[in-house]
Amino acid sequence: MKFNSHDELVNTSKEAQKKWRLIPAPKRGEIIREFGNELRNQKADLARVITKEARKIVSEAEGEVQEAIDMCDFATGLSRQLYGLTMPSERPDHRLQELWQPLGIVGCITAFNFPMAVFAWNFCLASVCGNSIIWKPSPHATGCADAIKKIWDKVAGDHKELVLILNGGNEEAIALCKNSNIPLISATGSTQMGKELAPLVSARLGRTLLELGGNNAAIVCSTADLDLTVKGVTFSAAGTTGQRCTTLRRAFVHADIYEEFMEKLYAYYATLKIGDPSDATSQLGPLISEKSFNDMQNVLISLKEKDVKIHGGQRFEVSDPKEFYVMPAIVEVDKVEDEMLAETFAPILYVKKFTELKDAIHMQNNVKQGLSSSIFTNDFRESELFLSSEGSDCGIANVNIGTSGAEIGGAFGGEKETGGGRESGSDAWKNYMRRVTATVNYGKDLPLAQGVEFDES
């Protein structure tokens, strides 16, 4: 569907939402269930679209489609659980209650690295809550959006316009953020993107749900199971070619096991199969663009000038010479380098020794981002410290698993410059609704709260 103007697009979405909100939530959930079933039927085809556009390996692409399917199941159940509280009133013959109503239109801006799953996180919850959605996908993944839209149209009946796609780049994202008819903007991308878009929404007192950058760390303690740890670290650091917001960027390794850990890590990295992501045996595909490759190389050049130890990072040609395949880099540092404090969206893992756990926790937290973190330990006290108020300051804190690979059952998001948003899991559905406090007087008198008297004879 083509629109002659941005206003026409928004008005169409608004009218679709007005019809959709009248459908009882459990009935909305049934339509989302049908959507999920059709995603199941076309899982392999959708995964191929992801691999073609986002260049993710087959297993990860199929996993992403499965995540969208799981979100449909989650939202279907949620459609019968949009609970509001009923509280005791201090006034006799009164009922005090919280109600939840849909917001209206949700503007959803997604990144290339999860071109279907992040849309599903937002759409499935937003739709069962009674909202419509305008989706601006990454310019790198418009085919993924078209494939999802085609499936939605197949099951949506009279509600095809509940999902509308706005293709484009920065200008289109800015237009969404400035439009006062869109109460909520959910945006996934870089911290810089969030800093540019958030003021546009806040200027009109709109809401934002931001999932931005991560500079994630793992702490490897002396009691860690090293074979398990190396697997967890390698997948988190190298998986998706380092292009996840939850990718492991920094590892702090206890001095007592540092040499053994590094020996195992280098050996495991040497087994990685890098190649055409459509080949089911490939573990890593290419970076998304030449710019991503250049950003990675510029950081490595800067580090080489400081004489730090760097393993990997080089480009090598596999199949199409226009694509940018790289060997994931391991950078061993003696001190925290400036490059470690910023996120480079590429497979660079910094490794540093530590001796005291509190020092490692401090180094982990001492960055501007606060998305994901992990600790590898078999010491109960160490894991509990890590999960306490003195421990990780991230929205995600894992024990004996890596920083990436979140499940939909838990709220996903982070603190500080990660944006503070939460998607999926728990009570994240409340982001897509407005709260109404309702007081019902079923008596014959009109007592006032706090004992206030007015017009009393």
What proportion of the residues is helical, as a percent range? 25-40%
**Strand tally, please?**
17
The chain-level structural class is alpha/beta
Shape: globular
Which radius of gyration do the C-alpha atoms yield? 24 Å
- Average pLDDT confidence is 96
Largest sheet: 7 strands, mixed
Beta-strand share of residues: 15-25%
Low-confidence runs: none
- Number of distinct helices: 13
The oligomeric state of the chains shown is single chain
What is the element string, with H for helices and E for strands?
Answer: HHHHEEEHEHEHEHEEHEHHEEEHEEHEEE
Q: Give the end-to-end Cα distance, rounded to a whole number of Å.
A: 66 Å
How do the strands of the widest beta sheet line up side by side? 10-11-12-9-8-14-15
Can you lay out the helices and strands and say which pair or pack?
Layout: H1 6-20, H2 25-41, H3 43-54, H4 58-78, E1 86-87, E2 94-102, E3 105-109, H5 117-128, E4 132-136, H6 142-155, E5 163-165, H7 170-178, E6 184-188, H8 191-202, E7 207-211, E8 216-220, H9 226-238, E9 248-254, H10 258-269, H11 290-304, E10 309-311, E11 329-332, E12 348-354, H12 357-365, E13 369-370, E14 372-376, H13 380-387, E15 396-399, E16 415-416, E17 433-441
Parallel strand pairs: 3-4, 3-6, 4-5, 6-7, 8-9, 8-14, 9-12, 11-12, 14-15
Antiparallel strand pairs: 1-2, 2-17, 10-11, 13-16
